[in-house]
Each structure stands twice: as structure tokens, then as C-alpha cells.
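Hi there,

I know you've been waiting on this one. I reran it after we fixed the sequence typo, so this is the corrected version. Both the input and the resulting structure follow.
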Amino acid sequence: MAADPYSILGVARGASEAEVKSAYRKLAKELHPDRNKDNPKAAEKFSAVTSAYDLLSDKDKRARFDRGEIDGEGNPTSPFGFGGGGAGGFRGRPGQGGGFEFQEGGGDFGDIFEGLFGGGAGRRGGGGGGFGGFGRGAPPQKGANVTYRLAVQFVDAATLAPQRITLQDGKTIDLKLPAGVETGTQMRLSGKGQQGSGGAGDAIVTIEVKPHAFFTRDGDNVLLDLPITLDEAVKGAKVKVPTVDGPVMLGVPAGASSGKTLRLRGKGFTGKNGGQRGDQLVTLLIDVPADDPAIKALVEGWQDSRAVRTHLGV
């Protein structure tokens, strides 16, 4: 059974968005892989915390979880899998390039009778027989639509990398992600559903963007907390920074403080309007080693007399 995202973040079910975000940021900093390189369990907890925040920060997902429609991993709780409706649902096998599931829509008995008798099931009387009027003017019926759920890696979504999926008939196709893709985005593949007398139905693909180990998303921007050393902060430095497009060099200005945010333009998600990419916002975090005798000796007898907390009223 999937874990409860509220329990993972340590917040109440009625917690506000601000409380959820605050709890996530606190845990993410404690469990960040860069701070726990020798603790693999911390990385697992970090991933769980990120997944929990991904669900609870999405209003639609959170509401569906609270109603019991999905579990803590975002999977449907219905025994018939993704899509929910009908008595004929079933789950399909995973495709290449990302996990997904599909189900055929449940049977509509009105459609079944229309297919058998030509669409006149609602008519009575007329014509010379017990089924008088059936079969006149009924258009051939298209096949049923088939729904798929496609899991896309965070970096792939940001860079719009093509996704290869396998349809229920065993054929594979390369799917081009749309600008502005996000969890819940739906794509319609015409004619890729079930066959019918009037042609094939469609495939409906719902995208789920997977959380990343250290990137988070804010609209079209990508956020990153970047640890730097004390000497890099004091003297300034050129440091290597990961982006969704690969590592780049970033200039840290001399005298940088923790919390200072630097911008890497065009390293975010492609927006829906105009196709322009967002930015990557890099927040600096000075990582001071514990019990370092050289640092203790350096600051021995020196004290910063500035009132750095005045703006907080203390």
C-alpha cells in the first residue's frame, strides 16, 4: 500500500499550501543527496518526500487523494485502473520509455444495441415486424477510445524529449511532447484506439511528470538549491551547476550569502504561449563543515557586529 503523503511530510490533512511547502523545504534540505553522500537511506527518503510534495502541491491530485480516488503514488484506487469508469476496464503492459497503463472504456449497452440493430433501439411500432424501424439511417459506429498513462522523466519534460510508447496492439510510436507539458496534460492520438465498423477510436494519453532528485518546478522555471563552500562564497568562484540541458559554469559573486538566487536564462520548461523557455533559478546554500579547526582558527577573535536581523524586528 502506498504511503500517506501527509505522514511523509509530517503535516495534517487540513494543512495549508504554505505549510505543505514549508515542511517539504525543511525535509528536502535535511535529506538532500549532496548532504548525505554516505547515507543511501536518506536518498530514498528524499525521493519519497519529493513525491509526496508533488502530489500535495497539485490541487487536483490532492483533492482526488482526499476523496480516496488515488493513492499516495497517484495511482487510481479503483479496481479497474486508470480512467475509472465502466465494468470492462483493465490495465495494460508498460511501454518503452516510461511506465503507463491503459484500459478500454466500460461497455455502453445502448451502443451495443445500436451496433446490433442499426441504431433504432428507441423506436417502436411502424413497418411490418417486431423490430420495425431498426436499421434505418444508423451511422456505423467508431471503435472505443483507449486511455493510457505515460510517466515522463522531469528532464525529458523540460527538454521535450520524444517518448516511445507501446500501444495495446504491440506497435510502438514516438510521441512528441507539447510545449507546456505538465502532469495531467492529455494528448489524443487519432485512430489509435479500438477498431469499429465506422473506423478506429482514439488513444488518449495522460502525462505524469515524475519528480526529480534535486530539481523542482515553479511554472515554467526550474528551481535548484546549490551548496557552495565558505571560501567560494567569500572570494567568489566559477562553479559547475547541473541544468536540464547538462552542466554549465556559474559565476558566484564574492561575498555571496545563503539564500542569494542567481538566474540561468532559458534553462527551464518551454511555455505554452509563444514557446519561450523559462529560466533556472539557483539558490545558493553555504555549506560550512562542522568542527573544522582551520575555520575555527580563522574566526577566532573576530566577530561580525552588523545587525543582520533588524528587518525581522529582533
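Quick highlight: The helical segments are 5-9, 17-31, 40-56, 59-66, 109-117, 154-159, 230-235, 293-299.

Best,
R. S.
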